[in-house]
Specification:
two-stranded antiparallel ribbon, elongated, 2 domains, Rossmann fold, single chain, eight-stranded mixed beta sheet, alpha/beta, about 375 residues
Length: about 375
């Protein structure tokens, strides 16, 4: 992680104070902090309020500058972990208020952020501190320069999932300890991310050799949350998902993530049951329909199914495979919540061939694929 560190000078009628601002976390003594901001409410004019805010900010600058023990985490175990930058920005907002009434409102909001956790039913995000989740994306266009290659993640498997996608979806739409199903698990990207984030994962893989590789990779990654990461070898269009879950002591899952073959763009095997070997788009859609039928039955109501897929060309014609598959899922009673477009600069098939593909586009009168879709559905 890149840490943004800089020093700003906060000014008031009473002077100025230099304050370091970083993305690194502070461990703040909650009791002393609440006592300090209670003083904000006691001020009878804005100038005095700003002086008190600046004084608190100076104490938060470093342990050396802390005169009131607010960073003394040994005084009791009642501490709050928070980004220094975000905390100081909230204090700035109080100091910059144009009325005491507004300053009191921001003070109460900061007090809630430091003392109360407000979650919704589908994730662990603390909505009282939502501004701190800068690494969670909420826009519908994802510009991803390169795939996450940390730990055991590998790009060696052609058509492999970009880890950032399951990471974002798991953090937005699941809680720790919940269960995730990936019917096209490949080399295990979804299960690796699930394991890292403390979610239990089940993946289905048709090819035994690929399933074996996925198990090896997942087993090499530290399982610090002691969750399940199970790879099942089988055909996701035929397996009894309910029986598969029963063997693990479960009745349902809380998320389904699907990254199927994009019809026949990449041939993953010679197995006729492989979706990349289906003889037509209609046959591909029928098989996807079978997978969604099975997955939908074990997905809890109100929870989410994620489909990651791209389009294809066939004989000079653009085939909207993504939207055709989307329509099949909608037929199963799912509600479409979002369509995200993911931009990618390089693929295994086009790597080091940018000029050739540009020439082909000029000659053939088409545009080069640089995007995929992430369809988000709610059951």
């Amino acid at each position: 992680m890149i840490t943004d560190t800089h020093k700003t000078t906060a000014k008031s009628l009473f002077g100025e104070v230099a304050v370091n601002r970083t993305d690194m976390p502070l461990f703040v003594n909650k009791t002393k902090f609440i006592e300090a901001i209670q003083q904000f409410k006691e001020q009878d004019n804005l100038s005095k309020l700003r002086f008190v805010v600046l004084d608190l900010q100076s104490n938060l600058n470093s342990v050396k500058d802390d005169k009131i023990g607010i960073l003394n985490i040994h005084s009791n175990g009642d501490t709050v972990k928070i980004s220094q930058k975000h905390l100081l920005e909230q204090l700035d907002q109080i100091a910059d208020s144009q009325t005491l009434e507004r300053a009191k409102y921001y003070t109460e909001r900061l007090e809630k952020a430091m003392t109360e956790i407000r979650n919704n039913k589908i994730n662990d995000i603390n909505l009282n501190r939502w501004k701190e989740y800068e690494d969670i994306w909420t826009d519908s266009l994802w510009m991803i320069d390169k795939r996450d290659s940390t730990g055991v993640h590998t790009a060696g498997y052609w058509g492999n999932f970009i880890p950032q996608i399951p990471n974002q979806m798991l953090r937005r739409y699941t809680k720790k300890g919940e269960w995730v199903l990936d019917p096209f698990v490949g080399c295990g990207t979804t299960l690796i991310e699930s394991q890292r984030l403390g979610r239990n994962g089940i993946g289905i893989e048709l090819q035994e050799s690929v399933a074996k590789r996925a198990k090896e990779l997942i087993g090499s990654e530290q399982n610090k949350h002691s969750v399940v990461a199970e790879v099942v070898t089988g055909d996701s269009t035929e397996l009894d998902y309910a029986e598969m879950l029963r063997k693990m002591g479960q009745k349902s899952v809380q998320m389904v993530i699907m990254h199927p073959p994009y019809f026949d763009i990449i041939k993953f095997s010679k197995n006729p049951r492989d979706l990349s070997n289906t003889p037509s788009v209609e046959s591909f859609l029928n098989k996807m329909n079978m997978v969604v039928e099975r997955a939908g039955k074990i997905l809890d109501k109100g929870r989410y199914l994620v489909l990651v897929i791209g389009d294809k060309f066939s004989r000079g014609e653009w085939i909207p495979l993504g939207f055709l598959t989307m329509q099949e899922i909608l037929k199963k009673g799912f509600m479409l919540k979002s369509i995200i477009v993911k931009n990618f600069e390089e693929t295994t098939g086009k790597r080091n061939q940018k000029e050739l593909w540009r020439y082909r586009a000029m000659v053939g009168g088409f545009y080069i694929f640089k995007h995929e879709y992430i369809f988000l559905f709610k059951k």
